[in-house]
Structure formats: structure tokens, C-alpha cells
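Lecture notes, unit on protein representations.

Consider one protein chain, 253 amino acids long.
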Amino acid sequence: MTARRGRTSAAGSALEKSLRILEAVAAPGGPHRLMDVTEAAAVPKSSTYRILASLIAQGFVRQEAAGRYGVGPRLHGLSAQVIGGAEPASIGHVLGELQQTTKLTVHLALHSGETITCIRKLEGDQPFRTASRIGVRMPLHTTAIGKSILARLPAEEVRALIAGGLPARTPQTLTSPEALEADLESVRTRGYAIDEEENEPGVRCIGAAVLDHAGRPVAGVSLTTVTFLVPRDHLTSYAPDLRAATQALAPLL
């Protein structure tokens, strides 16, 4: 990575600097060192560090091992929204096979801070539609995907994420840390999470996390149905198919 000619280290507004830093982080060969990002973006080191910290907090950048910086889940999500269904065919193939096997609605969502962002939705064969849509952000604690991600995060990180409270979206939402932790322990035991009308009335989901190379949850996949059409036992019988899909997606995200 080399500095761009014609730019001084102090050039540009805060927005311009942030965009140049994002470009530098997303450049081929990443994750990149702080020095390389600084030189490529032509932004002073102190400003680069401060902007990177903000971008990490917002989920656009992710700090990797040895202080390197790579593309974060929200930036991945934005790119997926821009190109629509044109993400790598192998991702679409994995999700499509899962939908064909189960005949249920399939969601793929990326983790970012206290939320997940839906980047792909394949409608099921059943005569109903859920309120979810591509681009929508949802809380971690109310969704099957979100809870599957929480279950794989360190305890201190979970405490920080829920420190601001657990707002209810339905009467079934888990709103106490104790209730949520008990549920997360069940998720760890069985390998998938269940959303029992906790995010949307009448809607039941199971979800499992997608892990990166370091074993950290970066995304999740869910199977969604309505409570009056598909019994809980029927839905959870697809858990092995769901987990197989998340394992197949791991190297693609």
C-alpha cells in the first residue's frame, strides 16, 4: 500500500478522511497495519487511529490480530445491499439449498455491535410473509440469529452489549439479563437458538452463528415460520441442516 500523490496529510474534511481510510482498509491484501492505512489514506496517524476506533465501534471496520484492520460486517452488509443478489454464487447456493430442503424462509444477517443486519432473505414456500427485509437492523437479544451470536461471544462482551437494557419488542421478549443468560446457556448446549415470538408476534425461528477463522461469530442464518403452521419440534428438526449451512458459509464471509 502506498500513499496517494497530490494529497497532504491534513487534506480533506473529516468525512473525506473517513472515506479514504475505509478505502485503505478495504484495499486488497488486508487486513492492513495502521501504518499502511495511514500512508494509503494520507491522513495523520493520530487522526487515522481515532477514525478507525469510531469505524470499529460502528461495525464498518474490524480489528484483527496483531493490530491489523479489516473490513467489518456493516461494510460487508452495505456492499451486499448495493449489488443485491450478486454476491458470490456459492453463498446463494448454500442458502438456496437450505431453503429447498426446508421449504422455510431463510435469513442471512451480519453482526454489528448491538444489532444484526439482514443482507439476504429467501422466502419460504408457505403462504405467509414476515416483516423482515434486506437492510433492516434488529436487536441481538430478540432474534434467533442474534442470540446464537451472543452465545459465542465472551461473557464480558455480552455484558457490555446488554448494559443499555433489553427492550421488549413483544410480550415474549427476554428482558432480564438472567433470563437471557439462561437461554444463551441452552443455545451453547444444543448449538442453535430459538426465537419464540420474541421479535415478531406469531413468528418462530431457529438460528445458528457463522464463525470466522478465529472462531468469532460474524453472522448468522435462521429458518423462519409462523407458530400456527409449523410446530416447534418440526422446525427444530432442521437444526442439522441449519448448522451445516453455517459451516459451509464460514469461509465465504
